[in-house]
Amino acid sequence: MFMTVDTENTGKLTYEQFIKSWDSSTYDLKEDDVKIMVSLADEDENELIPWRQFIPIAIEIIRNIYSRNFAGDNRYQSKKVI
Q1: How far is residue 44 from each of residues 6, 49, 64, 81, measured CA to CA in Å?
Q2: Segments forming the whole domain that contains residue 68
Q3: What's the chain's average pLDDT?
Q4: Which of 5, 45, 48, 77 is the most exposed place for a label (fewest CB within 10 A)?
Q5: pLDDT in tens, 11-43
């Protein structure tokens, strides 16, 4: 996803490119989730997100989002059954 949006092969994305890269993902992220990733990924606050620095952050964030969404689904289902 990152590389398709990085048309100039800089290894970095602007905020707009970064957000656009998630538009076609199958991760079912909410807009707030992507904004959180932007803020965490731009550690030096230069408004560019380097791919190599972002990988470990992305893995952790997506795990947390999936856990949150899965827990939310389970709570809903258990309430419905009871």
Answers
A1: 19, 9, 23, 48
A2: 2-81
A3: 76
A4: 45
A5: 898 888 888 877 777 666 777 877 888 888 887
The CATH number of the domain holding residue 57 is 1.10.238.10
Which pLDDT score, from 0 to 100, does residue 73 have? 54
Total-model pTM: 0.60
- CA 18 – CA 16 distance, rounded (Å): 5
Distance CA 4, CA 59 (A): 19
Distance CA 80, CA 82 (A): 6
Q: How many domains are contained in the chain?
A: 1
> With the C-alpha atoms ordered 31, 52, 14, 46, is the resulting torsion angle positive or negative?
positive
The neighbour count for residue 69, using CB atoms within 10 Å, is 15
* pLDDT at residue 79 tops 50: no
Q: Hey, what amino acid is at 48?
A: L
